[in-house]
Design brief:
Structural class: alpha+beta
Largest sheet: 6 strands, antiparallel
Distance between the termini: 12 Å
Strand content: 15-25%
Number of domains: 2
Number of helices: 17
Shape: globular
Number of strands: 25
Length: 483
């Protein structure tokens, strides 16, 4: 007899197999035309990424990843538990010297955290983030395959790209799948834009602000990153009636107690800027007083709590003593099950993965094939080193380099990545099928959870590293489905 968890995995696998069967049934010329249609619609929908001012289309993988509602419900429960724990980190940071040592900020950033982590910020602490993870929904052990890789607590990318990719696949691929297998019941997952807007609306209400002008503050002129703000502003205005603008910090002005962009008073801002980024532009002569005013008035999402967005957060959640000290039994159970052992890299004694105390550096040197080394605070997949793919000499050099770097690095147990096969077109237009690694991003909310998949033939999976988008769809078992 299968457990309910195992049965869900078998059903998800059976649905995924039916999707693959349909794709193999489609003749190569028709499938190639369908993939060209997907690419064309992606361009029209502005599913693109800027690399040094060059606009590049982001590939939408033709095969959707299937998950069941019960599976996504469990993932949302775990992700929300993780998210809420991370929102509490400022209190732990100031109250517990051991947490402080793990998450230690440079003094100037810590001063911002201390200044703006007020009782009002704690009471209305809105953080909108995405948590990167792996999960093989089509496995009988799918629950055990859920592992979180790192948190992203502020300024997440893909707010336009992910739902737009879902809509493109809903218009192109899903009707074909249903036509060729009418019992396939697939639907797109929740739209991250709706979740974000409801969080922003709730935050306006909680701070007593009645206006309806929202500003997305981003590095507007960087020339790199998702090119999505114009489309996002249009969507929010059309669907929610709010005025949305996007501005660089240099374009904001402080007028009395109000922050303005051009002739508009900003009621709430969603930021894609960390404190360290603001300090950098301030050193270049940009007046950041408007951003400080927004922090002081708790009119920024994500809140100042997101400044503790570091990969080393996972050391707090995997250190046995800190777990017992700060988290309840349900939290401890979920974190032990779904967060891989993570430690700030340094010459010290700590708890090793087998729950024994030991010297960290000798362990990291000897357990190369089980580990990953990552820069603690960077993003986009930059600098990530997978031990199983690294020669011993290069691994040793990376450890030495990380120890010399004034910026901290972490070491983490490597977790198995989900692999899916996707059809692709080579440079000559010839169809081929190749395996890709999949990393998922879960954005949790009181109102639901948005899910996006990213695909790459490299183990470091990120759209910034030229990865593609794998659309996650919700599957429902047909009555005659055999598992």
């Amino acid at each position: 007899m299968l457990t309910p968890v195992a049965e869900a995995g078998h059903v998800a696998r059976a649905l995924a197999d039916r999707v693959r069967t349909v794709l193999h049934t489609i003749g190569e010329p028709e499938l190639a035309r369908l993939m060209e249609t997907i690419e064309g619609e992606a361009r029209v929908a502005r599913v693109v990424y800027l690399h040094d001012d060059i606009v590049e289309p982001v590939r939408i993988m033709a095969t959707p990843m299937v998950a069941l509602p019960d599976q996504l419900s469990y993932v949302r429960t775990v992700t929300l538990t993780l998210h809420r724990a991370l929102k509490r980190l400022p209190d732990l940071y100031f109250a517990d010297s051991d947490v402080w040592r793990v998450l230690e900020l440079p003094a100037i950033e810590e001063a911002w955290l201390r200044e703006y982590w007020t009782p009002a910020a704690r009471a209305s602490n809105t953080v909108f983030g995405r948590h990167d993870a792996v999960c093989d929904f089509g496995s009988a052990d799918w629950k055990q395959s859920l592992w979180f890789l790192e948190p992203n607590m502020s300024g997440i990318g893909g707010l336009h790209l992910a739902p737009s990719a879902s809509r493109v696949l809903a218009r192109t691929m899903l009707p074909v799948l249903h036509r060729m297998d009418p019992e396939l019941q697939l639907e797109t997952a929740q739209d991250v834009r709706g979740l974000l807007m409801q969080e922003l609306i709730d935050h306006l209400e909680s701070i007593g602000r009645r206006g309806q002008t929202i500003c997305f503050v981003e590095p507007k002129y960087s020339g790199s990153g998702p090119d999505e703000q114009v489309e996002l502003a249009r969507y929010v205005h059309d669907h929610f009636g709010y005025t949305v603008c996007h501005a660089d910090p240099s374009e904001l002005e402080l007028d009395g107690g109000e922050v303005r962009y051009q002739d508009r008073v900003i009621d709430l801002a969603y930021r894609d800027y960390g404190v360290i980024d603001l300090l950098e532009v301030a050193a270049e002569g940009v007046d950041i007083a408007p951003m400080r005013a927004l922090f002081a008035q708790n009119r920024l999402v994500s809140s100042i709590a997101a400044e503790l967005d570091q990969k080393s957060c996972f050391e707090v959640l995997t250190d046995p003593e800190l777990l017992e000290r700060h988290f309840d039994s349900d939290e401890r159970r979920l974190f032990r099950r779904h967060i891989p052992w993570t430690r700030v890299l340094g010459d010290r004694t700590t708890t090793l993965p087998e729950s024994r105390n030991g010297e960290l550096l000798p362990f990291v040197a000897s357990a190369r094939e089980r580990l990953v080394i990552k820069p603690n605070r960077s993003y986009g997949g930059t600098g990530v080193l997978v031990g199983a793919e690294t020669e011993p000499a290069a691994w040793a050099a990376a450890i030495e380099g990380a120890l010399r770097d004034p910026e901290r690095w972490v070491v983490q147990l490597a977790v198995p990545l989900t692999v899916m096969e996707f059809p692709s077109l080579d440079d000559t237009g010839r169809l081929q099928r190749e395996p890709y690694y999949i990393v998922l991003g879960f954005t949790p909310s009181t109102y639901g959870m948005a899910t996006v998949g990213r695909a790459s033939q490299q183990r470091v999976v990120n759209v910034a590293q030229h990865g593609g988008i794998c659309v996650v769809v919700i599957g429902h078992a047909p009555g005659r489905l055999v598992v």
